Prior knowledge:
The structure is a single chain. It is built from 19 helices and 13 strands. With 586 residues, it is an alpha+beta fold. A hairpin with a 2-residue loop joins strand 7 (488-490) and strand 8. Helix 3 (47-70) runs antiparallel to helix 4, helix 5 (104-123) runs antiparallel to helix 13 (345-356) and helix 9 (253-271) runs parallel beside helix 12. The longest helix has 40 residues, at 132-171. It is globular, with a radius of gyration of 31 Å. The relative contact order is 0.06.
Amino acid sequence: xxxxxxxxxxxxxxxxxxxxxxxxxxxxxxxxxxxxxxxxxxxxxxxxxxxxxxxxxxxxxxxxxxxxxxxxxxxxxxxxxxxxxxxxxxxxxxxxxxxxxxxxxxxxxxxxxxxxxxxxxxxxxxxxxxxxxxxxxxxxxxxxxxxxxxxxxxxxxxxxxxxxxxxxxxxxxxxxxxxxxxxxxxxxxxxxxxxxxxxxxxxxxxxxxxxxxxxxxxxxxxxxxxxxxxxxxxxxxxxxxxxxxxxxxxxxxxxxxxxxxxxxxxxxxxxxxxxxxxxxxxxxxxxxxxxxxxxxxxxxxxxxxxxxxxxxxxxxxxxxxxxxxxxxxxxxxxxxxxxxxxxxxxxxxxxxxxxxxxxxxxxxxxxxxxxxxxxxxxxxxxxxxxxxxxxxxxxxxxxxxxxxxxxxxxxxxxxxxxxxxxxxxxxxxxxxxxxxxxxxxxxxxxxxxxxxxxxxxxxxxxxxxxxxxxxxxxxxxxxxxxxxxxxxxxxxxxxxxxxxxxxxxxxxxxxxxxxxxxxxxxxxxxxxxxxxxxxxxxxxxxxxxxxxxxxxxxxxxxxxxxxxxxxxxxxxxxxxxxxxxxxxxx
Length: 586
């Protein structure tokens, strides 16, 4: 197949693509136009518009897959598209938005459906009918279509961008920065999709002549298979180390085993039609030896996963890793036991799993939330039984669970454990302050003071009920200062934060008004048991100079060590309310 077709061929294929995929291309055009409108109206990052845009993005692969599946049948079953549109509508209306903030579960669910849609595109034409030679050629067509559509879209985008820049600089015509993003959206949303769909032959099942190129053979034989062997050596060496030292495996090893499994499955798909006929010994022996060698490593994978689950409970990430582990085991046994060994089982089964784990009491979200609530109850009960004194590690585990549930907007599930609903108890619109207020309310004392690598050197006040008394002051302004910017100005007064001084310098032109020393404040902050929702009085400094009265109410303060091999911390950034009164104005 030619990589770069003629212009006439592109035009012809463009018309044929629209006749074959009218719903998909119409969907892509409407979605692109809507996205262009949100960019023009400066509402592109609005959560409600994000829901619409993500639905359009999701629909493209699902509509393509539906069309391919429909083409397997001789009779007209266009009603299948009703199911697809119903699925997209269900996704749209189940997309959770809370206070203009997209719910984390909705993003994860989108990713799952996005992956499932693309996996279904890979396998849809062969769900009913199966021919391994035709399937191999179809995968080649998919790969060439992806490369070609990306290449053409990139060339078009760069060409238009350069043309706009040329007009801007040669004719002094100014363009909004949004124009470049809009051009990108058009190239990705319409051009890329159209070119991609124009590359698929209708008679997919009749393409059975195998053209296994030398380049592909070199890729498999001298790159992919050696990588598989390298991963196997590393993992078996690590397994030997575990046996000798009698230690449990680290959690990170699970990702390496999964990566090895996916790499092996890709190799199996690439060599499937020619494995028994090719002269290469490495390719012919890949099956079944890869699967035999993979089985012991799956034991390592399960031990690593269950160790983390036992210690910290289930989260979405661990749920997905555990699900992938069972899927890899099932696919390995399928390849070793089944007589048919249809390669379509790899993408099809993974697509079904991606959909299946996205909802229900068995799904990733429900199981993870219940597990973390149980973990909270277990740790909280242990701490409560010791008069709310515990180790730093236990307190940090509790903090992590609260952060996790807060990100999922499900802190109310702790009500039966702590006796109140944090959302109604702590009336704050700040998402991150809610978890801080809850953690502070537990009043947990730490019995050890380890050198905490995760310690937050960022302190802030509780601004929810903050009232600023401006009596005796003329001006109130909010400033941000850090050690990398020289000055910030209120009226004719310049404020600066020199590096490693813990002082705020105030100038008026070339006249040095004075310095405000923050050293005592830093000492007080470091002695605090918490970083968030501090009393504004603690974070307030008032100073009277000869010509100026200044009052600083620090909203937040960042401390840094500046890499000088000492434990001393200095103020590196501040956000502060500044009140000033000029004495000579009285």
